[in-house]
Amino acid sequence: MADLAGVSTAVVSYVVNAGPRPVSNTTRERVLAAIEALDYHPNAVARALRLQRTKTVGLLVPDIGVPFYGEFARAILDTASETGYSVLILDAHHEPALELQPVQAQVASQVDGVLAIGEVSETDLTVFQTAGTPFVTLGRPDDDPTMPTVAIDEYRAARAGVDHLMDHGHRGIALLGGPEAETVATRRRQAWLDATGFGPRQAALHSVAAAFSRRGGYEGCRALLSRGARFDALFVASDIQAMGALRALAEAGLRTPQDLAVVSFDGTEESAYSHPPLTVIRQPIALMATLAFDLLLRKESREAGIHRIVPHELVLRESCGHSSADRSGP
Amino acid sequence: MADLAGVSTAVVSYVVNAGPRPVSNTTRERVLAAIEALDYHPNAVARALRLQRTKTVGLLVPDIGVPFYGEFARAILDTASETGYSVLILDAHHEPALELQPVQAQVASQVDGVLAIGEVSETDLTVFQTAGTPFVTLGRPDDDPTMPTVAIDEYRAARAGVDHLMDHGHRGIALLGGPEAETVATRRRQAWLDATGFGPRQAALHSVAAAFSRRGGYEGCRALLSRGARFDALFVASDIQAMGALRALAEAGLRTPQDLAVVSFDGTEESAYSHPPLTVIRQPIALMATLAFDLLLRKESREAGIHRIVPHELVLRESCGHSSADRSGP
DNA sequence: GTGAAAGCGCTAACAA
DNA sequence: TTGTTAGCGCTTTCAC
Questions:
Q1: Where are the domains positioned within chain B?
Q2: Is the pTM of this model over 0.90?
Q3: What is the DSSP letter of B318?
Q4: Which of A55, A162, A315, B318 has the CA that lies 20 to 30 A from A22?
């Protein structure tokens, strides 16, 4: 390569990286020609070793097959590619954190930082912390001040959802919540609890904890239905669970929203196409991705305690009882 | 590190990799202790440079936010992690191939191979081919014998879907197809054409090409509806388009399957939770992922022309008119 | 069974 | 303006 152009490798480097030293035009031409002729491409691995920077970030997701995480991943891939970054995806697929430790460590040495969506175990985070790998968590409400985070105000967001149901006059609002171990699920539950004013007995009767999956939502909803408690509305902790819930409701012969109003959480694309379209609390996915990525690379993430709260949005569709008269499609 | 244990770096390597040279037990102990004490983790980048092997594969997807691709990515992540591989995701987000060239080349130098789901441009493939990066395509029916591929038999699969609609007695079967540029869309259309026996005029009247997205399906279906052609069934080229179609049908006051039977393609999770649940042609995603990954690493992919055809499956649910009496949930 | 040293492909300090 | 060279952290041949 350098030989063909008759220059040293240093000059090739200067040309390819446009610096840090100047190169005469004639030399540059020769180098460029040689690059073209040999279809030369710099080796990213060697570059990374030398620079101690891989231009790659890790993205830790609970399950890339879940649309909410998929849409998040897309947003992050978009932002990353704008600045020439690659993204290494790690799918925790709900496994215990310990199993991942070896992988994590391996990955920690080949990424410039890690973005973690959703629930992440403390031990996972510790791996990155001790490895000195910058990281920021996304959508993980936590008061732990050492943890850089970008998230909506989970409590207020969920509260907005339940309050909206109350504005519609509903009083028997059941909760189809997320797994008890997940912080977001706890926050959303607390909001529901405060809004409804249910006491312990009523709360237990009117709520269920289910997995963040369609099946989880389906089974959770059936469990709720089989209890015989009377409720006229359902607040669901995630869109994906709502898909299962709508199915269960339909099978039970219950109409939404006439018999039961529904509001769910996240605002993924599919929530606009369900039957009926779901009224949701939407998280600003693209914005969160951009902010998190910037935070990660500016290494502000090292300054502990950066918590960026982004605005949520109540999106009114049919499932809460709004008329669709003025709608013109999703 | 090596210093602490009082050994050379070579021995550390022997211990960490359990070879290729033997190490005495006492020495091993000392090394292990030092590793523990220093929380040492080998640098994956340096390792990759030396071995010329990154233990990372690239995954090229059209849009990671689309559930079908998300589920595919999940399956591939699963297989990859079993053998200690990391996965670098590249989202083409429907951009022209040329824009990606720089990225591709960069990536080509940091992965051991590339898996491409769905449509991939020839020029994209050329980048990897000239870089000597092994690759295999997934779900890309192509007679090009130089291209290693894992896919269902698109024609037969689609044919099975349309034939099933005909078995139900439908004769006016419309097609909500994919983009004309996509090979799979062409194949599925041909199957529909042969099964229905439509001539050019009828075919044009009864079909539409739409983007592989919910909105694409929604708009495509509305276009079909507004044409005034009479049809009693709809064959949809993908689940995600079917979601949009179901929405459009509902808004038009058409009941599925009473007024219009629907069968779609892919068999993602969401197809089991729509209203009504969709009868689909399912692609064996997990199997395809495993086969493709194996193919990629065994470098059989270098032997041109490996086409592995995997079985598709007709999954009967309600949208085609089957009774749901015997169903017990998704 | 272990150490010394070369070298993977690149960048950047230093020399010229 | 350009060339020479050290070294990023690892593996592995070769010598002992």
A1: 2-42, 55-153+285-311, 154-282+314-326
A2: yes
A3: G
A4: A55
